[in-house]
Amino acid sequence: MFFEWSLLSLITLAAIFLFVKMFYFKNITHREQKSNELMKLTLKEAEILIRKYQIQLQRSLGNVDILTDELNKLRNELKVLKQRNSQHRNETDKLRNRSMTWKVVSMLFCKASQRGVPKRSYYIFKV
User: Fold this and answer.
1) What is the tens place of the pLDDT at every residue in 1-47?
2) pLDDT category, 106, cuts 50, 70, 90?
3) Whether 122 contacts 105, CB under 8 Å
């Protein structure tokens, strides 16, 4: 009788232990499934965000290319304008020099005419 009672107790304790262990592992697997579902959802959201930012990056790179082209065009225009400006300065300097030469010649001519020197002798100064 003691043997039957101890065998029944042992089987009951083993059943209770296995029952508790079953619920414990069932709870753990349930938590892992929830965690996996949450992870999958998070990954999907991350993929969506990555696609969104990738599209924005591609647009931005396209805009940068356009702006780079415009910047290069403006640089070229600036170079052309600087060249024109230097040409105009050179022409202006030449005209100033000519006008100064003509002023000097006319002053000499006036002084010479006041002295009574003939006009033909001062054509040598003409530029």
Assistant:
1) 888 999 999 999 999 999 999 999 999 999 999 999 999 999 999 99
2) confident
3) yes
4-42 per-residue burial string, b: 16 or more CB within 10 A, e: under 16: eeeeeeeeeeeeeeeeeeeeeeeeeeeeeeeeeeeeeee
* 117-125 contacts at long range (C-beta below 8 A, 24 or more positions apart): 125/101
d(CA 25, CA 19): 10
> Contact 105/126 with Cβ under 8 angstroms?
yes
**DSSP letters of 43-110?**
HHHHHHHHHHHHHHHHHHHHHHHHHHHHHHHHHHHHHHHHHHHHHHHHHHHHHHHHHHHHHHHHHHHH
The chain-wide mean pLDDT, for the chain, equals 87
What are the tokens at 94?
Answer: 């030449």
Q: Which residue has the tokens 């002053």?
A: 107
Q: Provide the residue count of the chain.
A: 127
